[in-house]
Amino acid sequence: MDNDRGIPKTGIPFAVQMVREKIGALRVMPTREEIQKLLAICMQAGA
């Protein structure tokens, strides 16, 4: 988890960072529902 995009690790929740990395890896613009599903999955995994 390096910081090559200039995103500070502090101040950004881990789940949001994970979602951003997934979006960046897919290089597609997900719908709001898809983002919410990813967030829910990440939060369950991190809980």
Provide a descriptive summary of the structure in words.
With 47 residues, this protein is an all-alpha fold. The chain has two helices and no strands. The chain has helices at 14-26, 32-46. The longest helix is centred in the last third of the chain and has 15 residues, at 32-46. It starts with 13 loop residues before the first helix and ends with a helix. 2% of the residues are buried. The model has no long low-confidence stretch (mean pLDDT 72).
- Overall geometric form: globular
Report low-confidence residues grouped into runs of 5 or more. none
Oligomer: single chain
Radius of gyration: 11 Å
For the report, how would you describe the main beta sheet? none
Q: How confident overall, as mean pLDDT? A: 72
How many helical elements?
Answer: 2
Q: What's the helix-strand series?
A: HH
Can I get a quick summary?
With 47 residues, the chain is mostly helical.
